[in-house]
Specification:
alpha+beta, Endonuclease I-creI, 3 domains
Amino acid sequence: MYDMATRLHTLNLLADGRSMSSVSKETGVSRASIRSWRVRVEPLPRQQRTSPCPPLTDTASYAYLLGLYLGDGHISQPASHRAPSLRITCDNKWPGLMDAAEEAMRRVFPFNRVCRARKVGCQDVKVYSKHLRCLFPQHGPGRKHERRIILEGWQQAIVDAHPWEFVRGLIHSDGCRITNWTVRNGKRYEYPRYFFTNKSDDIRKLCTDTLAKVGVQWTILARGSDPFNVSIARKASVALMDAHIGPKY
């Protein structure tokens, strides 16, 4: 009733962590047939059941999602799931950020279900896919600031092509736009300022290198003895950031 191409496509969707119901709805294959294919005695050959990472069709969204991942992202694989999950943790104060993260995930993973998991004070925007570890090779054991974070050549090419999207992801995850103030000659003056705060020397360097390429001037401010903060305060640079990034919402 179904040709081999349909069966392979259906099984690959299941291998990506998709539910049986969602795969049935997308492919038009009945749940009974899907169930029988999953428990068949003679499995399909490995080279047919697995597929290489699909090409990225929306590299701008990937650059933004990469920035989010390097800030507040985490890849893990629960024992109950066949595929790992990418989670971007967003504070409840920023509903617009949650929407932007979800939209980027949908564009990068157009055939996978994106969902949200509520926590106290925040939500995880997440997607399951067996391709996560090859699309985000920076994943590894331990915290990001305790290991080297270096982009692959193909990732750097994407960041070079979409630097503002990458910076936007970094700022939306571990950055902010604030209003500073100072007093001069008895008068209070206010001025906007951007910060990016991250404990990883490598991730901060990825941020500052990309900022320099788009003409944004920055300085490093130490928190105590640790240089955690990238500060952008010059008027022209703040104007560039406002034009391309803007505050979280």
